[in-house]
Amino acid sequence: MSEPSGRNEPFDAVDVIVTKRGKQRLSDEQIDWVIDAYTRGAVADEQMSALAMAILLNGMDREEIARWTAAMIASGERMDFSSLSRPTADKHSTGGVGDKITLPLAPLVAACGVAVPQLSGRGLGHTGGTLDKLESIPGWRADLSNEDMLRQLEDVGAVICAAGSGLAPADKKLYALRDVTGTVEAIPLIASSIMSKKIAEGTGALVLDVKVGSGAFMKDVDDARELAETMVALGTDAGVTTVALLTNMQVPLGLTAGNALEVRESVEVLDGGGPPDVVELTVALAREMLAAAGREDVDPADALADGRAMDAWRAMISAQGGDPGAALPEAKETHTVEAPADGVLTQLDALKVGVAAWRLGAGRARKEDPVQAAAGVVMHAKPGATVRGGEPLLTLHTDTPERFDRALAALDGAYTIAPEGSRPDLLPLIIDRIAP
Ligand code: URA
Fold first, then answer.
1. Catalytic residue selected from 197, 287, 397, 403
2. Among 167, 304, 319, 360, which is most exposed with the fewest C-beta within 10 angstroms?
3. Active site residue 299
4. Segment 171-203, tens digit of pLDDT
5. Is residue 338 exposed (0-12), middle (13-18) or buried (19+ Cβ within 10 Å)?
6. Around 292, how many Cα atoms within 13 Å sit in the side-chain half-sphere?
């Protein structure tokens, strides 16, 4: 055992690292200390990186994960929506390509009488961020005070905004570190990262959309199920009614990937149209959120069909300074990729389309990079569709045409056109449901 490094520190970071390196459980006291000490700078980044890698390699049991989550919640403030006149429900997606579901979902659930406090993030890498998408609407702003958020939840019923710096600050620091040390893909760290923010946010009910496939963190169903079960247990133990759906991210969601392009598609859904997969998942998640908040008597499909969800969207966008009627930005340049042959599209890889959209300018490589509102990819067909050689398959959008080459390189092998009569071999859109 080495000596504690800080004069008043009860533990030594090296001992905590060595415990996990040796496949031992961390004690409650070690976990509380290491999270607190890292947040205040008494544990160095390189020490936390080593611990994160030891956790990735050797895992944590359910009690350790619960304690780690509680310690991250305790690193910051907890919000409280108990003064609202309606119940609250939130949705969290583990992230995917073309995943714009939050945009139609939040106003839809609000229109059904349940308030949606959706604290969202910006995109990093090939998955888009909800705030980046909404920021393509002229005037819309993501930063609200806690008071503004509460007022909007009472008046409109839905708010999508940036999480304040006071919410789980330990996670902010740790997530940035994991991002650059190859330690994002650890189930205990993903589960505690997501759930610490959602529990601190104070929602009464939570529906998790755990994505599976090339465009998701979790590439196979068993890993996704383990992540979902871990998060459902964490939420339930913290008093939040939590369920999870495992959903397909082998293929992008909908027909667009890119900020303004996805807003346009979301508005089509609110207007009663839109791609069938986006509509199906939006309604399925809305049903789960309403049921978890005690309102299984309401059918969200009605609120989508009769325009109440669209009214709630307009109110939500206006309340945050946006003009819901304003024209969305259009890219300066487009490039069309044509189907190389007649046949059936059997594969359209989510990761490759996401990387192409990112390279066109829709996403960022570092968190301080700007994004292009109009950049992205429009898909003209989804797996199962019959295509004709020479017809448009994908259209690439960007303001900076020098990006086309790298985006096209990302699309190498992204799609397969098989002889007529072939069928795609894909997981269903909704693969499974995990409840406590
Ligand atoms: N999203 C998060 O908030 N945290 C993770 O660790 C992964 C995805």
1. 197
2. 319
3. no
4. 999 988 998 898 988 999 999 999 999 999 999
5. middle
6. 32
417 forms beta bridges with 345
pLDDT tens profile 112-164: 999 999 998 777 667 778 999 999 999 999 999 999 999 999 999 999 999 88
Ligand 1 centroid – CA 194 distance (Å): 5
172 is catalytic: no
The closest alpha carbon to 106, from 245, 256, 312, 253, belongs to: 312
Sign of the Cα torsion 259, 227, 285, 274 reads: positive
By CB atoms closer than 10 A (0-12, 13-18, 19+), residue 1 is exposed
Q: Specify whether 92 is catalytic.
A: yes
CA–centroid distance, 193 to ligand 1, in Å, is: 5
Q: Coil, strand or helix: which one is 362?
A: helix
> What Rg value do the Cα atoms of the chain yield, rounded?
22
Q: What is the pTM for the complete model shown?
A: 0.95
Which domains are delineated in the chain?
Answer: 13-59 (1.20.970.10), 89-326 (3.40.1030.10), 333-418 (3.90.1170.30)
